[in-house]
Structure formats: C-alpha cells, structure tokens
Amino acid sequence: MERHGKSTILILVLLLIVVIVTNTAIGSSDISPVDTGKIILNAIIEKLMIDGQISIDKIWSDSASTIILDIRLPRVLLGALVGAGLATAGAAMQGLLKNPMADPYIIGMSSGAALGAALAFTFMMPVQLISFILAAASIYVVYNISRMGERVPTETLLLAGIAVGFFLSAITSFIVFLSQSPHQIIYWMMGGLWTASWAKVKITFVMILIGVLMLYRQSWNLNVMLLGEEQAQSMGVDIERVKQWVLIFSSLVTAAAVSVSGIIGFVGLIIPHIMRIIVGPDHRILLPTSTLMGAIFLVFSDTIARTILDSIDLPVGVVTAFFGAPFFIYLLRKRRQSLNA
Amino acid sequence: MLEVRNLSVSYGKHQVLANINVTAERGEVLGIIGPNGSGKTTLAKTINRLLKPTSGEVLINGKNVHHMKSVEIAKHIAVVSQVFSINFEFTVEDIVLMGRTPYIKSAETPDDLKIVEDAMEKTHTSFLKGRLVTQLSGGELQRVVIARALAQQPDILLLDEPTSHLDITNQIDILNLVKHESRKGMTVIAVVHDLNLAAYYCDKICLIRDGKLMSYGTPDEVITSDNIHTVYNLPVEVITNEITNSLYVIPRLEPLP
Fold first, then answer.
1. Mind telling me how many Å the CA of B27 is from chain A's nearest CA?
2. CB distance from A220 to chain B under 8 Å?
3. pLDDT digits over B78-114, tens only?
4. Are strands B187-191 and B156-160 parallel, antiparallel or unpaired?
5. Interface probe, candidates A3, A217, A222, A234, chain B, greatest B C-beta count within 10 A
6. Domain ranges of chain B
7. Residue pairs spanning A and B at CB distance below 8 A
8. For residue B7, what pLDDT is reported?
C-alpha cells in the first residue's frame, strides 16, 4: 500500500510539472512548449542568480517572455494552487465528517466568501481581503453555534453550516438583486482565474502551503477516526483537537482559494473521491495525491476555459463540472462493475 | 488494576448508575451482566472516560482516569466493542497498526510493526494481513479488532458485548483468546449477555439492574436462581454443568402445547 502510494505521488508530481509547462504554452499567441519550458527555466535561473554556471540560448522574443512570465504563468500557477488547496481541504473534510457529500464549502464558507465579494463590489472595497475575512468569519460562527461544552458534534456542525450558508446566501441574493452592476458579482460567484497576478500567487502560495502541510499532519488521526469517534478516542486520539485543527486549516486553505478565484465548485468534492477510488482511504496517501490531482485538474480546466471559445474567457467553474462530472460518473460505474465481478 | 469507587452517572436528570463499587485485579476477568438498559455499557464507557461521572472515580493503578489525557488512557485501556463492519478499504495490517496510535510520534517504527505482528499471531489473523477489512467475515473482523486492541499493549482490555453477534464457534474462540491473555496478566472487563458464558469465563461478576449493583462476587455468589429471578424477572434453575464444572442457567419455561 505504502510503496504503491509513494510511486503514485511521484508520478503525479512529474505530471503536474508537465501540465504546468504545456498549459502555459497554450494560448492565442503561438509559443512552443519547448520554448515555454526554456523561458520558465531561464527565469528560475535568473532568480536563483546562478546565471554564469548554466546558460540557455535566448532564441525567444521579449514579447513571448512577457506573455509567458507575466500573463500566463501566474494564472496557471494560481490555478494549480487553488485546485491543490480545494482538493486537499475537500479530502480532509470528507474524512473528518465521514460524509461523501462533504466538500470545502459544506459548512457555509462559500456563502460567507460570496457575501464578502458582493459587499466588496458594491462598496468598492478590496474583494480578496473582504471575501477572505467573511469566509473565515462564517466558519467561526458555525463552529461556535455547533459547540456543546467541549464537544462539537459533526452532525450539528453540518446542519449549522447549511443553515448559516442559506442565511448568508439570502443576504447575497438581496444585494445582487438591488445591485446596479450584478454581473461582476455573478461572474465572481461562478469562479474564475481572470484576475491572476504574481502578488496573488505569492500570498495564496504561502497560505495554501501552510494549510495543506498542517492538514497532512492529521492524516493518521483522520484514518483512525474513520473507525468511529468513540473508537478513535479509545485509541488515544484527541478527537476534538483533530476537529479544530482540520477545520482551522481547511478553512484557511479554502478562504485563501476562494478569495482569489471565486467559488469554483466540483474540484473539492470530486477529486478526493477520484483519488480514493485510485489509492484507497489512507489519508497519508489520499491527501497528497488529492493535492496534486486537484492542481493538475484545475490547470487543465482553466486552459479549456480560456481557449475553447475564441476570444471568450469562460468561468473555470463551468468547465470543472462540465468535464469532471461525466468522468466521475464513468469511474463510479467502472468501479461498481469491478466490485460485482 | 482497576478500581471503580462510588461511581454515579447521569444523563441530564436521569440517573443511570448509582454508587457502583467494583475492582478488577491484574489477570482477572470481571464480567458485567444485567438486563438491557441496566447501565452495563454506561459503566464501560465511564471506565474508559467517554462519559463523565457525576460523582465517584475510576482509578487505574491508583490514577484517576478522568484526570488523564486520551493518549495516556489508551496506553492502559483498550476497548473492543461490537463491530459489524468497517466500510473503508484498509488492509488488516493497517487496522491493527492503528492500535499503535498512542505510541506513534510521526511514523511507525520496526518495533511497532513487530508488536502488530505479534498481535496478529495471538489472534490467528496473520494470514489475513494483506486482506481488505471490507472483505472479512464477522468472526474474522472481530478477531482483527481484538488484535488492534492488543497492539495497544494495554493493562486492561475492556470488552463491550464483543461476541453477541457471532456464531457459537467464534464466540468460544474469542473468549478463549481473551481468557488466555488474562492468564498472562491482562485485566479483562467484559460486558456479557450470555449468563452461561459469563459463569464459565469470569473470575468475578457484577450484576447490575437499573444502574444499581445488585450483586458482586464470584460466579457462585452472583449467579443464583434468586438473583437472576429478581434482576431479570424470569424464574430460572441454576445447575452445575458436570462437563465444564461451571454454573448453568436454565429458564423455567412452560412446555409448549
């Protein structure tokens, strides 16, 4: 199991690198994947200031370099980060709540973020900051509503999350309905990577990296908790602490992702399921493979979103579900057949 | 060694256990018997700190469990309850390794794996090692769960109706295994439904009704026709089974027409 897992992780890392380079090469102005690779490599070498030791012949134009480094690469990287974060948070939440319907948004975070964006667009405030704050605040409220003394029962957490989510959505709908320019808010809620920039990549990278690594630390405890909370407690797992930990860090990751990309659905729900079918339920493998597959999947989806229609940049949230759902249904069917055999 | 002192537990205003006093020495099998709803499982859960007592205390080797952290308790008490199925595709070895949770810091060591192997040997589950737990029979699964508990290397094994859902062969297999462990020094506390199995396997028995300790002592002292009649409200005959030399409870049923 473990060796199998490690090789899967290695394959996915290599695949992710290939996907990042090739998808950066795809776009309206024609730059070959090889040149793209060279441009990125050259930029890395310059950044690391080991210029003299390795040299790459500059055979590309300055405009190609600008398109790759300033426009496409930040968007591809932001997509990878958001996909990685949502898939990891989704896998952790499914494990924690032992609920196959769980995703990073299930306890109301997307509704908080959407309300934040709606307020920010309406009152000309920074969208990323306000949606991050409201996403985090909504989880804080849900957690405290659900708390009964020292315990937070997961069923209550789910129900409170849904209730708070509906409440916040109602306020958002109200704002959208009265808004002079509802399109901005509606597009934001569909999820897209249009506003990618290096600044966003950097801050998102830091938050998602911290959150994801912290979630990995609970892998073993999440495994044990699959046997039931009382069982896990009698095996020495401090279940309430695990709950807090997973909620805090999946919220950090999700809020960081949502605040730069809007509400991209499907990735956080389905990627963990796909990986569970492939690598099994062990979170020590499931979490990192979900991270990698989420990144790969969202980079792919975003490339389709920005190239499938000439000169129209679709919301990536549309693409993720449109292509992902049939694939998932195929996997489900295939698995059922193999179980029956 | 386990001591339960003046233990009372309430769910809200409803008192489920009142002033229970029992002890289990090292190497002893203590049975907890009583009708459904009498408070047996509540007692087991309070011993394991899953429930808080309203008064009284539970001591392991003199230390109050309700002042201990879950990790610490897990090194002393392992719990086996009725497990019907595990729906996640872990291998048997993965599940048994989970018993090492209180000891594992970052990753399992060769020592942990050795202990896991021993636990599987003791429970005759080594041949299942690489199998998925989703594919096991009820008896196999319960043995794997016991292997997991043994991997915790506890002083006390707490069993909550571990065999009620199993066939007679598996029941006997598992209880023999548990008895064997107790003879090597482990304290066993078992919630049991079957009075005859309790009489045969337990060194001491406590009989509970409505949260009160009705009788406590050796099987001979506890399993009497009067006690059973009072607590279960069923007339019975208690005889000595000459084959096993242990007590045997027979309900006094009317012959069917």
1. 21
2. yes
3. 999 887 788 888 999 999 999 999 998 878 899 999 9
4. parallel
5. A234
6. 2-251
7. 62
8. 93
> Contacts of residue B45 in chain A, CB cutoff 8 Å?
230
To the nearest whole angstrom, how far is the Cα of B180 from the nearest Cα of chain A? 22
Residues 6+ apart with CB under 8 A from B141: B83, B85, B86, B133
Kindly state whether B50 is in contact with chain A, defined as any CB-CB distance less than 8 angstroms.
yes
Number of structural domains chain A divides into:
1
CATH superfamily of B2-251: P-loop containing nucleotide triphosphate hydrolases (3.40.50.300)
Contact with chain B for residue A224, Cβ under 8 A: yes
The per-type count for chain A, helices as H runs and strands as E runs, is: 15, 0
Under the banding of pLDDT at 50, 70 and 90, the label for residue A336 is low
Summarised one tens digit per residue, pLDDT across range A50-81 is: 656 666 777 778 888 888 888 899 999 999 99
Mutate to test the interface with A, among B45, B96, B101, B129 (most CBs of A within 10 A): B101
Write down the pLDDT at residue B113. Answer: 94
Tell me the nearest-neighbour CA distance from B125 into chain A, angstroms.
19
DSSP 3-state of B149: helix
Mean pLDDT of chain A: 88
Q: Please, are residues A320 and A274 in contact by the beta-carbon 8 Å criterion?
A: no
pLDDT per residue as tens digits for the range B190-212: 999 889 999 999 999 999 999 99
User: How close, in Å, is residue B55 to chain A by CA atoms?
Assistant: 19
Residue of A nearest to B83 (CA): A227
Contact: B88, A226; criterion CB under 8 Å = yes
DSSP readout, B52-92?
Answer: --SEEEEEETTEEGGGS-HHHHHHHEEEEE------S--BH
Asked if B41 has any chain A CB less than 8 Å from its own CB, the reply is: no
Question: Tell me, what DSSP letter sits at residue B67?
Answer: G
Q: Which CATH number do you get for residue A239?
A: 1.10.3470.10
Domain hosting residue A219, numbered range: 2-340
Tokens of A36: 């793209």
Beta B156-160 vs B77-81: how paired, if at all?
parallel
Maximal CA-CA distance, chain B: 67
Written as one letter, the residue type at A243 is K
Beta bridge partners of B78: B157
ipTM of this predicted structure: 0.88
B69 CB within 8 Å of a chain A CB = yes
Asked if B190 and B34 count as a contact pair (C-beta separation under 8 A), the reply is: no
Burial of A20 (0-12, 13-18, 19+ CB in 10 A): buried
Residue B162 half-sphere exposure toward CB, CA atoms < 13 A: 33
Mapping DSSP to helix (H, G, I), strand (E, B) and coil, where does residue A169 land? helix
**Residue B182's closest CA among B160, B166, B201?**
B201
Tens-place pLDDT, residues A137-183: 999 999 999 998 888 898 899 999 999 999 999 999 999 999 888 88
Among A213, A221, A223, A235, the strongest candidate for a mutation testing the B interface, having the largest count of B CBs within 10 A, is A235
